[in-house]
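Form P-L/3: holo structure prediction, ligand iron/sulfur cluster.
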Amino acid sequence: MAPDKVSLVRCENYDKSTVDAAVRRSVDLLGGIEKLVRPGARVVLKPNLLIDASPEECVTTDPAMVLAVGRLLRSIGCSVTIADSPGSFLPYTAETLTRVYSKSGMLAAARELGIPVNLGVGSREIPYRQGRALKSIKVIDPVLDADAVIVISKLKTHLATGLTGATKNIFGVVPGLEKKAIHARLRTPVRFADALVDLNERLKPKLQIMDAVMAMEGDGPTSGRPKAMNAVLAGTSPYAVDAVAARLMRLDPMRVTTLQAAARRKLLDINGIEVVGESVESMAVRDFALPYTFVHAASGSILRKATASAISCLGLDRARPEVSPSCKGCGACAKSCPAEAINIVSKRALIDRSKCIECYCCHEMCTNKAIELRKNFFGRALDRAIVRTDTKG
Ligand code: SF4
Ligand code: SF4
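OUTPUT (holo model):
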């Protein structure tokens, strides 16, 4: 297998000219845009538009990134559309799309580029006989009608998978509530990771661009904190791009469930990635906070890394969701829960433990930050042991 190439370029801020230069260089390091996308092709740009959040919140791809990629494609005569289907409890309607495009800055970016955003709500089922978890997949129309898809992801931590970046971003091509149905069918992290790899293998995006100028640390993908990483990444393999991104976060790539799934299928050779541009060592963020579900084991001894990996593999660092007193009873968590484990009782969310599959969709979708995560005694004790080793190392 030829090594997967990933370009890593410094980008200090979201000034349009700075981002333009960084995106162009990241693509040039891969051989140039014309080598990756046929001039004149119909291209869909697929940013991360999880919820209606403003760019400063770092939940969604920054519009400057979409502008830069759009300009690059227009320079070779491509027709470009921005398309996505936001989070798993948001219905795929023109109203949802308008709200999310507007707040995330995509509408303004599209106007500046003179390109459309997709407001259609059609989707089609496509077969995938080779799929491990999905034998057929419902996908939004613009993606199926395009000659090429370019994924413009946002680097964020993720409580369930470790990180969300290139590989997981493709889930947004599944329309609206169908995402929740997939979560409900594939109840374990392993099965869900296989589904994400299935989607990537079936749709084969031509190019991955990752917005890691401002990343999200802590309990992502919605409740974490913005963290400067000052980087743009690009590549053709979503798994290789995510593996390099994990190293920038100082997270062992083989602890990321989607990368484990790719490696099991021999789609990722973790030691065979060629990084061009900046070095990972020069760009890695030393004090990057991992999610609560991933004990901090970003640096230090082999023993500590091995211990952390073993804890992850055994699922001992997983946590249970709990509703905090700040719950407003809005019901967004109940709508997002694939296991139907949440009911609103006396204006407060109530979780049925016997049904919960610990997918953390409720945490992801509660914009009031009223879902907290707690580990059991054993998990907390292991965390403390790891952190103690960390401070000694
Ligand atoms: S936990 Fe959050 S999403 Fe759920 S009802 Fe309370 S405030 Fe709403
Ligand atoms: S209660 Fe939360 S973590 Fe549990 S299954 Fe529902 S959405 Fe997932």
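COMMENT: The first helix runs from residue 16 to 28.
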